[in-house]
Amino acid sequence: VRERLTLAQVERIRRARHHSILLFITDRCPVGCAHCSVDSRRNSPTIVDFARFEELVDGIAALDDIVLVGISGGEPFVERRGLTLAVHRLSRAEKLLVLYTSGVWARSSIPDWIHSVLCEASCVFLSTDGYHAEVLPGDRFVKAARAIREVDTSLVVQVIRIPEMVRAAESLLHDAFGPAWPREAELSLTPPLPYGRGASVFHQGDGTLGREFGPCSALAAPVVRYDGRITACCNEQVIMGRGPDRLRARCDGAQLHTALDEWKRDPMLSAIGGIGPGPLTEHPRLRDLSEEPFASICDLCWRSLERISRDDAKGDPLLVGAAALSEAVRASA
Length: 333
Ligand code: SF4
Ligand code: SF4
Hints:
Layout: H1 7-15, E1 20-24, H2 50-61, E2 68-72, H3 80-92, E3 96-101, H4 112-120, E4 123-127, H5 130-133, H6 138-150, E5 154-160, H7 163-177, E6 186-190, E7 208-209, E8 223-225, E9 229-231, H8 236-239, E10 248-250, H9 256-264, H10 267-273, H11 277-280, E11 293-294, H12 297-307, H13 310-314, H14 317-332
Parallel strand pairs: 1-2, 1-8, 2-3, 3-4, 4-5, 5-6
Antiparallel strand pairs: 7-11, 8-9, 9-10
The structure holds iron/sulfur cluster (2 copies).
Protein backbone atom coordinates (compact mmCIF):
# COMPACT_ATOMS: atom_id res chain seq x y z
CA VAL A 1 0.00 0.00 0.00
CA ARG A 2 1.38 3.40 -0.96
CA GLU A 3 2.32 5.50 2.04
CA ARG A 4 1.20 9.16 2.10
CA LEU A 5 3.60 11.65 3.60
CA THR A 6 2.93 14.92 5.38
CA LEU A 7 5.29 17.87 4.98
CA ALA A 8 6.82 17.12 8.40
CA GLN A 9 7.44 13.49 7.44
CA VAL A 10 9.08 14.50 4.14
CA GLU A 11 11.29 17.00 5.96
CA ARG A 12 12.28 14.50 8.63
CA ILE A 13 13.49 12.05 5.99
CA ARG A 14 15.20 14.83 4.01
CA ARG A 15 17.17 15.89 7.10
CA ALA A 16 18.61 12.40 7.64
CA ARG A 17 21.89 12.19 5.75
CA HIS A 18 21.64 10.29 2.45
CA HIS A 19 18.23 8.83 3.20
CA SER A 20 16.77 10.77 0.31
CA ILE A 21 17.89 11.85 -3.12
CA LEU A 22 16.58 14.34 -5.65
CA LEU A 23 16.29 13.08 -9.22
CA PHE A 24 16.46 16.03 -11.60
CA ILE A 25 14.86 14.72 -14.80
CA THR A 26 14.84 17.72 -17.11
CA ASP A 27 16.04 21.32 -17.39
CA ARG A 28 13.02 22.08 -19.51
CA CYS A 29 9.96 24.03 -18.37
CA PRO A 30 7.44 25.93 -20.47
CA VAL A 31 6.27 28.28 -17.70
CA GLY A 32 9.09 30.84 -17.97
CA CYS A 33 8.81 32.49 -14.51
CA ALA A 34 10.88 35.64 -14.09
CA HIS A 35 12.40 34.35 -10.83
CA CYS A 36 13.37 30.81 -11.96
CA SER A 37 16.39 29.78 -9.88
CA VAL A 38 17.49 27.12 -12.38
CA ASP A 39 16.85 29.31 -15.45
CA SER A 40 14.54 26.72 -17.04
CA ARG A 41 13.21 27.45 -20.49
CA ARG A 42 10.92 25.79 -23.00
CA ASN A 43 13.93 24.67 -25.06
CA SER A 44 16.38 23.85 -22.23
CA PRO A 45 18.18 20.48 -22.41
CA THR A 46 16.36 17.30 -21.42
CA ILE A 47 17.01 13.53 -21.52
CA VAL A 48 18.51 12.35 -24.81
CA ASP A 49 20.27 9.17 -23.65
CA PHE A 50 17.47 7.07 -22.18
CA ALA A 51 19.70 4.04 -21.64
CA ARG A 52 21.93 6.12 -19.34
CA PHE A 53 18.90 7.57 -17.57
CA GLU A 54 17.43 4.11 -17.03
CA GLU A 55 20.73 2.91 -15.53
CA LEU A 56 20.75 5.89 -13.18
CA VAL A 57 17.20 5.16 -12.06
CA ASP A 58 18.13 1.51 -11.47
CA GLY A 59 21.21 2.70 -9.57
CA ILE A 60 18.99 4.77 -7.27
CA ALA A 61 16.54 1.88 -6.89
CA ALA A 62 19.44 -0.28 -5.68
CA LEU A 63 20.59 2.15 -2.96
CA ASP A 64 19.35 0.53 0.24
CA ASP A 65 19.75 3.61 2.45
CA ILE A 66 17.65 5.81 0.17
CA VAL A 67 14.03 5.62 1.28
CA LEU A 68 12.69 8.71 -0.48
CA VAL A 69 13.26 10.03 -3.99
CA GLY A 70 12.18 13.55 -4.95
CA ILE A 71 11.63 14.10 -8.68
CA SER A 72 12.03 17.62 -10.02
CA GLY A 73 13.34 19.73 -12.86
CA GLY A 74 12.54 22.09 -14.68
CA GLU A 75 9.03 20.77 -14.93
CA PRO A 76 9.15 16.96 -14.58
CA PHE A 77 5.75 16.48 -16.24
CA VAL A 78 7.05 17.77 -19.60
CA GLU A 79 9.43 14.78 -19.61
CA ARG A 80 6.72 12.15 -19.91
CA ARG A 81 8.89 9.16 -20.86
CA GLY A 82 11.51 9.87 -18.18
CA LEU A 83 8.95 10.62 -15.49
CA THR A 84 6.83 7.53 -16.05
CA LEU A 85 9.89 5.31 -16.21
CA ALA A 86 11.35 6.75 -13.00
CA VAL A 87 8.07 6.68 -11.09
CA HIS A 88 7.15 3.10 -12.01
CA ARG A 89 10.64 1.67 -11.38
CA LEU A 90 11.28 3.50 -8.16
CA SER A 91 7.90 2.71 -6.76
CA ARG A 92 8.48 -0.96 -7.64
CA ALA A 93 11.70 -0.68 -5.63
CA GLU A 94 9.55 0.56 -2.72
CA LYS A 95 11.01 4.06 -2.65
CA LEU A 96 8.71 6.80 -1.38
CA LEU A 97 8.19 9.35 -4.16
CA VAL A 98 7.77 13.10 -3.87
CA LEU A 99 7.06 15.09 -7.03
CA TYR A 100 7.75 18.80 -7.54
CA THR A 101 5.60 20.54 -10.14
CA SER A 102 4.04 23.83 -11.17
CA GLY A 103 0.82 22.10 -12.29
CA VAL A 104 1.28 23.34 -15.88
CA TRP A 105 -0.14 19.99 -17.07
CA ALA A 106 -3.60 20.58 -15.51
CA ARG A 107 -5.51 21.56 -18.66
CA SER A 108 -9.21 20.87 -19.33
CA SER A 109 -8.69 17.13 -19.48
CA ILE A 110 -5.83 15.48 -17.64
CA PRO A 111 -4.37 12.45 -19.44
CA ASP A 112 -4.49 9.00 -17.78
CA TRP A 113 -0.70 8.71 -17.62
CA ILE A 114 -0.61 11.78 -15.36
CA HIS A 115 -3.24 10.29 -13.03
CA SER A 116 -1.23 7.11 -12.84
CA VAL A 117 1.98 9.01 -11.99
CA LEU A 118 0.19 11.08 -9.31
CA CYS A 119 -1.24 7.87 -7.89
CA GLU A 120 2.19 6.41 -7.20
CA ALA A 121 3.50 9.49 -5.38
CA SER A 122 3.42 9.79 -1.61
CA CYS A 123 3.32 13.56 -1.78
CA VAL A 124 3.25 16.26 -4.46
CA PHE A 125 4.75 19.72 -3.95
CA LEU A 126 2.73 22.10 -6.10
CA SER A 127 4.33 25.50 -6.44
CA THR A 128 2.56 28.78 -6.90
CA ASP A 129 3.47 32.43 -6.44
CA GLY A 130 3.10 35.77 -8.16
CA TYR A 131 5.69 34.88 -10.81
CA HIS A 132 3.95 31.66 -11.78
CA ALA A 133 0.63 33.51 -11.73
CA GLU A 134 1.89 35.94 -14.38
CA VAL A 135 2.03 32.99 -16.77
CA LEU A 136 -0.19 30.23 -15.37
CA PRO A 137 -3.89 30.98 -14.86
CA GLY A 138 -5.24 30.31 -11.36
CA ASP A 139 -7.66 27.67 -12.61
CA ARG A 140 -4.67 25.58 -13.73
CA PHE A 141 -3.48 25.53 -10.11
CA VAL A 142 -6.99 24.68 -8.88
CA LYS A 143 -7.29 21.76 -11.34
CA ALA A 144 -3.85 20.45 -10.45
CA ALA A 145 -4.55 20.65 -6.71
CA ARG A 146 -7.84 18.77 -7.12
CA ALA A 147 -6.28 16.13 -9.40
CA ILE A 148 -3.62 15.41 -6.78
CA ARG A 149 -6.16 15.05 -3.97
CA GLU A 150 -8.58 13.02 -6.12
CA VAL A 151 -6.06 10.19 -6.17
CA ASP A 152 -5.55 10.66 -2.42
CA THR A 153 -1.94 11.83 -2.71
CA SER A 154 -0.74 14.34 -0.09
CA LEU A 155 -0.55 17.90 -1.33
CA VAL A 156 1.99 20.49 -0.19
CA VAL A 157 1.69 23.93 -1.73
CA GLN A 158 5.06 25.60 -2.01
CA VAL A 159 5.05 29.37 -2.06
CA ILE A 160 7.65 32.10 -1.61
CA ARG A 161 7.55 33.60 1.88
CA ILE A 162 6.12 36.98 0.81
CA PRO A 163 2.81 37.85 2.56
CA GLU A 164 0.78 38.75 -0.55
CA MET A 165 1.95 35.59 -2.31
CA VAL A 166 0.99 33.46 0.68
CA ARG A 167 -2.46 35.12 0.76
CA ALA A 168 -2.89 34.46 -2.98
CA ALA A 169 -1.98 30.80 -2.50
CA GLU A 170 -4.50 30.47 0.34
CA SER A 171 -7.17 32.05 -1.82
CA LEU A 172 -6.46 29.58 -4.64
CA LEU A 173 -6.69 26.72 -2.17
CA HIS A 174 -10.01 28.11 -0.99
CA ASP A 175 -11.18 28.08 -4.64
CA ALA A 176 -10.04 24.46 -4.97
CA PHE A 177 -11.40 22.99 -1.74
CA GLY A 178 -13.53 25.60 0.00
CA PRO A 179 -13.06 26.76 3.60
CA ALA A 180 -11.90 23.31 4.71
CA TRP A 181 -8.80 23.53 2.48
CA PRO A 182 -6.37 23.07 5.41
CA ARG A 183 -7.65 19.47 5.62
CA GLU A 184 -6.59 18.95 1.98
CA ALA A 185 -3.26 20.77 1.70
CA GLU A 186 -0.32 22.07 3.70
CA LEU A 187 1.68 25.18 2.93
CA SER A 188 5.46 25.19 2.68
CA LEU A 189 6.98 28.66 2.67
CA THR A 190 10.30 28.99 0.87
CA PRO A 191 12.83 31.82 0.88
CA PRO A 192 13.29 33.81 -2.35
CA LEU A 193 16.35 32.41 -4.16
CA PRO A 194 18.61 35.00 -5.82
CA TYR A 195 19.96 32.48 -8.38
CA GLY A 196 19.37 31.87 -12.10
CA ARG A 197 16.84 34.43 -13.36
CA GLY A 198 16.01 35.08 -9.67
CA ALA A 199 19.33 36.96 -9.37
CA SER A 200 17.76 39.94 -11.13
CA VAL A 201 14.53 39.72 -9.09
CA PHE A 202 15.73 39.01 -5.54
CA HIS A 203 18.79 40.43 -3.87
CA GLN A 204 21.24 38.73 -1.56
CA GLY A 205 21.21 39.86 2.08
CA ASP A 206 23.75 42.35 3.42
CA GLY A 207 25.84 39.68 4.98
CA THR A 208 26.10 37.46 8.03
CA LEU A 209 29.34 36.90 9.91
CA GLY A 210 30.95 33.57 9.06
CA ARG A 211 30.82 32.29 12.64
CA GLU A 212 27.03 32.80 12.79
CA PHE A 213 26.05 30.20 10.18
CA GLY A 214 24.42 26.97 11.40
CA PRO A 215 24.40 23.61 9.60
CA CYS A 216 23.54 23.21 5.92
CA SER A 217 20.50 20.94 5.67
CA ALA A 218 20.78 20.68 1.86
CA LEU A 219 23.83 18.43 2.16
CA ALA A 220 21.70 15.59 3.46
CA ALA A 221 20.08 14.97 0.06
CA PRO A 222 22.32 14.69 -3.02
CA VAL A 223 20.99 15.40 -6.53
CA VAL A 224 21.21 13.05 -9.51
CA ARG A 225 20.77 14.76 -12.88
CA TYR A 226 19.33 12.84 -15.83
CA ASP A 227 22.67 12.89 -17.68
CA GLY A 228 24.76 11.41 -14.86
CA ARG A 229 25.96 14.63 -13.28
CA ILE A 230 25.48 14.44 -9.54
CA THR A 231 25.82 17.08 -6.84
CA ALA A 232 26.37 16.76 -3.10
CA CYS A 233 23.59 19.26 -2.30
CA CYS A 234 20.52 20.72 -3.96
CA ASN A 235 21.89 24.27 -4.28
CA GLU A 236 20.69 25.43 -7.71
CA GLN A 237 23.99 27.13 -8.50
CA VAL A 238 25.94 23.97 -7.79
CA ILE A 239 23.56 21.96 -10.00
CA MET A 240 24.07 24.53 -12.75
CA GLY A 241 27.88 24.15 -12.55
CA ARG A 242 29.04 26.88 -10.15
CA GLY A 243 31.00 26.47 -6.92
CA PRO A 244 33.79 24.00 -6.08
CA ASP A 245 34.16 20.89 -8.26
CA ARG A 246 34.25 18.90 -5.04
CA LEU A 247 30.46 19.27 -4.80
CA ARG A 248 29.95 17.68 -8.22
CA ALA A 249 30.74 14.34 -9.88
CA ARG A 250 29.75 12.40 -12.96
CA CYS A 251 28.84 8.74 -12.83
CA ASP A 252 26.66 6.00 -14.26
CA GLY A 253 24.11 3.99 -12.30
CA ALA A 254 26.63 1.34 -11.22
CA GLN A 255 29.04 3.95 -9.83
CA LEU A 256 26.40 5.88 -7.92
CA HIS A 257 26.91 4.15 -4.59
CA THR A 258 30.68 4.77 -4.63
CA ALA A 259 30.29 8.40 -5.69
CA LEU A 260 27.83 9.13 -2.87
CA ASP A 261 30.03 7.32 -0.40
CA GLU A 262 32.97 9.54 -1.33
CA TRP A 263 30.94 12.58 -0.20
CA LYS A 264 29.91 10.81 2.99
CA ARG A 265 33.58 10.25 3.83
CA ASP A 266 34.62 13.87 3.23
CA PRO A 267 35.09 15.31 6.76
CA MET A 268 34.49 18.88 5.57
CA LEU A 269 31.10 18.01 4.10
CA SER A 270 30.12 16.00 7.18
CA ALA A 271 30.97 18.99 9.37
CA ILE A 272 29.27 21.60 7.14
CA GLY A 273 26.09 19.52 7.23
CA GLY A 274 26.50 18.66 10.94
CA ILE A 275 27.98 21.31 13.24
CA GLY A 276 27.78 23.84 10.37
CA PRO A 277 30.31 26.05 8.57
CA GLY A 278 30.06 28.71 11.33
CA PRO A 279 31.60 26.62 14.16
CA LEU A 280 34.03 25.21 11.59
CA THR A 281 35.65 28.67 11.33
CA GLU A 282 37.24 27.86 14.73
CA HIS A 283 39.68 25.73 12.70
CA PRO A 284 43.05 27.54 12.45
CA ARG A 285 42.99 27.48 8.64
CA LEU A 286 39.51 29.04 8.52
CA ARG A 287 39.64 31.39 11.48
CA ASP A 288 39.82 34.60 9.44
CA LEU A 289 36.45 33.70 7.85
CA SER A 290 34.78 33.86 11.25
CA GLU A 291 34.45 37.68 11.29
CA GLU A 292 33.95 38.11 7.54
CA PRO A 293 30.41 38.86 6.31
CA PHE A 294 28.95 36.44 3.74
CA ALA A 295 25.84 36.94 1.63
CA SER A 296 24.84 33.31 2.15
CA ILE A 297 25.89 30.09 3.84
CA CYS A 298 26.94 28.81 0.40
CA ASP A 299 29.53 31.57 -0.04
CA LEU A 300 31.15 30.57 3.25
CA CYS A 301 30.90 26.87 2.35
CA TRP A 302 32.61 27.42 -1.03
CA ARG A 303 35.43 29.48 0.49
CA SER A 304 36.01 26.85 3.20
CA LEU A 305 36.02 23.96 0.71
CA GLU A 306 38.41 25.79 -1.60
CA ARG A 307 40.81 26.32 1.27
CA ILE A 308 41.03 22.75 2.62
CA SER A 309 41.14 19.89 0.09
CA ARG A 310 39.44 16.56 0.69
CA ASP A 311 42.79 14.81 1.21
CA ASP A 312 44.00 17.45 3.65
CA ALA A 313 40.70 17.18 5.54
CA LYS A 314 40.98 13.39 5.80
CA GLY A 315 44.39 13.73 7.43
CA ASP A 316 43.41 16.56 9.78
CA PRO A 317 42.49 15.30 13.29
CA LEU A 318 40.45 18.42 14.09
CA LEU A 319 38.29 18.02 11.00
CA VAL A 320 37.96 14.26 11.44
CA GLY A 321 36.82 14.99 15.02
CA ALA A 322 34.35 17.65 13.83
CA ALA A 323 32.93 15.15 11.32
CA ALA A 324 32.58 12.44 13.99
CA LEU A 325 30.89 14.91 16.35
CA SER A 326 28.52 15.92 13.54
CA GLU A 327 27.55 12.30 12.87
CA ALA A 328 27.01 11.67 16.59
CA VAL A 329 24.77 14.75 16.88
CA ARG A 330 22.78 13.59 13.84
CA ALA A 331 22.39 10.08 15.21
CA SER A 332 21.00 11.38 18.50
CA ALA A 333 18.61 13.91 16.85
S1 SF4 B 1 10.22 28.42 -11.33
FE1 SF4 B 1 9.43 26.36 -11.76
S2 SF4 B 1 7.61 26.73 -13.00
FE2 SF4 B 1 8.79 28.63 -13.07
S3 SF4 B 1 10.10 28.44 -14.92
FE3 SF4 B 1 11.30 27.66 -13.17
S4 SF4 B 1 10.94 25.45 -13.16
FE4 SF4 B 1 9.31 26.40 -14.41
S1 SF4 C 1 26.20 25.44 2.03
FE1 SF4 C 1 27.47 24.28 0.57
S2 SF4 C 1 26.66 22.23 0.65
FE2 SF4 C 1 25.10 23.57 1.55
S3 SF4 C 1 23.72 24.14 -0.12
FE3 SF4 C 1 25.30 25.70 -0.01
S4 SF4 C 1 26.87 25.00 -1.48
FE4 SF4 C 1 25.56 23.25 -1.01
